[in-house]
Amino acid sequence: MNRPDTRNFATLIFALSMGIGVLQPRATAAEPFAGIRRVVFLGDSITYSGQYIEDVETYLRLKSPGFKCEFLDLGLPSETVSGLSEPGHAGGAFPRPTLHERLDRVLAKTKPDMIIACYGMNDGIYYPFGEERFKAYQDGILLLREKAKAAGARVLHVTPPPFDAVPIKSRTLPAGLAEYKQPYEGYDDVLDRYSEWLVSKRADGWDVVDIHTPLRKHLDEARTRDPKFRLAGDGVHIDATGHWLIARELLRYWKVLDPKDEKAEAAGPVFDAMPQGAEVWKLVQRRQRVLKDAWLNAVGHKRPGMTKGVAVEEAEKQASAIDEQIRLRLSSGAQSSKQ
């Protein structure tokens, strides 16, 4: 008869006696995506830039070389989920596009199993908080969920990044104006409200990752050391550090982040420390960037000035060739780590 593993039993007794419970093992990269073939990311220009998506995919593929889930970036610059647009947006060239003009086509053409949606930055249209604008945002989110559910897709919400008025202080406006052709100086308070509402919906069973709070905390703490520190030079569009911080929160949510990477503040050093990491990162970036413009064009939208991209068939052919290069790098990395 096999003897019981007294070491595990002792660990359990010690943990309970200390009141700390038992640490759960980290998931493998594939576990949170069991049964999920395709994830579509929706959002505004922050999502379209796609760096946090590239960081997440790279990390997952490096940790689990057999990772099969496809990530598609269908973020669209200027877009809102609320359907609102401020007067004179883009110098009067065009109103902000709304997700709901294209959502049905996104769902029909991409057939996602999961949607990761990051909206809010544009939805308050850079005005002070207003109940009507807030309700338009809530209604837009609810409609997104309703249509995704009907299409058989789960939704993971991501709160908006913070708005930082400091770098553009001379171009912000105070409270109490009738119209805002430049951003309201306290606009991050509006995003606080939008983020708090999303997080509160966890009580209703919604899946929500809060990035607003940790990015704001990172920004505030860094600025105590360096008053000139910034994550977004224009107050909105975060840099590579900000994108990695978003990726880090998503990886934490899925419980796949290695403890040694928990406090990393940039993607580069994380991937440099992994066999073939930097090479795989570059390949994932190439793959993502050829696919997103192709799919955006195929789905259609009303945002002028976007790159057309190649046809989806050609983009997928190029992506397949890049995938083979990634597979070879991952195989080489696995071999070198065993030596």
- Which CATH class applies here? Alpha Beta
Proportion of beta-strand residues: 5-15%
Overall spatial form: globular
- SSE pattern, N- to C-terminal: HEHHEHEHEHEHHHHH
Helicity level: 40-55%
Total count of strands? 5
Radius of gyration: 22 Å
Which spans of ≥5 residues are poorly predicted at pLDDT below 50?
A: 1-25
Q: What class would the helix/strand composition place it in? A: alpha/beta
Distance between the termini: 38 Å
In total, the number of domains comes to 1
Query: What's the total helix number?
Result: 11
What this model shows, in words?
The chain is an alpha/beta fold. It is 46% helix and 7% strand. It has eleven helices and five strands, in the order H-E-H-H-E-H-E-H-E-H-E-H-H-H-H-H. Helix 10 runs antiparallel to helix 11. The chain is globular, with a radius of gyration of 22 Å. The N terminus is likely disordered.
List the helices and strands and how they pair.
Layout: H1 6-18, E1 38-43, H2 45-49, H3 51-63, E2 70-73, H4 103-110, E3 114-118, H5 131-150, E4 154-158, H6 187-200, E5 207-209, H7 212-225, H8 240-253, H9 267-272, H10 277-299, H11 312-338
Parallel strand pairs: 1-2, 1-3, 3-4, 4-5
Task: Provide a concise account of the structure shown.
This protein is an alpha/beta fold and 339 residues long.
Key descriptive features of the protein:
339 residues; alpha/beta; Rossmann fold; five-stranded parallel sheet; 5 strands; 46% helix
